[in-house]
Amino acid sequence: MENTVVSxxxxxxxxxxLRRREALQAKSEKNSFELAFCGHFSAGKSxxxxxxxxxxxxxxxPIPTSAxxxxxxxxxxxxxxxxxxxxxxxxxxxxxWDKARKWGMDGNAIKEMTIYGPFPFxxxxxxIIDTPGVDSTDPDHQKITASQLFTTDMIVYVTDYNHVxxxxxIEFLQQLSREKKPxxxxxxxxxxxxxxxxSIQSFENAVRNMLAKSNIRxxxxxxxxxxxxxxxxxxxxxxxxxxxxxxxxxxxxKNPSIQALQTAAVYDLLEQLEDEQEEAWENWEEEVRTxxxxxxxxxxxxxxxxxxxxxxxxxKEKLAQTAKERKQILENAILxxxxxxxxxxxxxxxxxxxxxxxxxxxxxxxxxxEREKREAELYEDLNEKIKNRWSFICVIC
Length: 397
Known about the structure:
The chain contains eleven helices and nine strands. By secondary structure, it is an alpha/beta fold. Helix 10 (338-351) packs antiparallel against helix 11. The termini are far apart.
């Protein structure tokens, strides 16, 4: 049964790793750098991207928008769509932007959308990725976001001022940290902050303490406002300079990033394997209970059996080592008289695990008694020889 369970774990391990390994292989071949924007739907994620680009390209509204992966790359102005059936459509120069914003919200018909433009800060093979909201209730949206993050080199996570410490944000950021992703945290709508109620320093300290307690590691933190450009706490320009510099110099970041992605993939798969093992163990416990048995009792029996086997193995190892050492002594027996050598040989024979005395003396107790007898005779003879030699040395001195 144990081999069957292990085989099942290995099969699941292989199945889950396949898609990720294929994605990483494709990324290595493309030699690309991807910076993904994530966040819940009301955080203003698309507005932040539009501001970074200097154009209102992505759909923005108070309801969930992006329902598929939207990539933004450097090139001549163009729009490319990949439908769910795999077919592609492309527009150049004359782009139907009104329709494009609707397509960005149509996850049922459109699988991917790529927007090309003369963005000078984008390196030739760099891309900005917009993902569906992390709090989407649509499982397809969640799957799209998770799949895209397999190959993403850096994350810009956008949250609004009032929901920084929401459970959704914390859990998603924890997952990103476990993946060893470089994270830039953007707290948008900072214009909602009231310094009379709480100083900005106290607010920032609270955020950083939350991140530390949750084991979330970030690369940098920015406060932004898309509504009030001149707000004293608005770090939008600092954020824009930082992200553009990363994208402009992304070519030098590709190799270390792909290595980090491969390492993260290994850790993720090991974590999945542990989850599968834990689930299999829980299923076993439940099955045992349905049969009217106590899993803890069976565990104690198993541990006792393991301990007994371990003790037996250690005992055999010690006996083998003792026999080896005694054999060495016997090979050097020329140092001792014939009688001592014979007694040593007799004792060594008794220490063999398969030693039998012959005749009726076959019980374990009688075998141990015979061993003790031969050992005592040997020690007595050795002590006598040592005593005589010591007396001889004293006389000479």
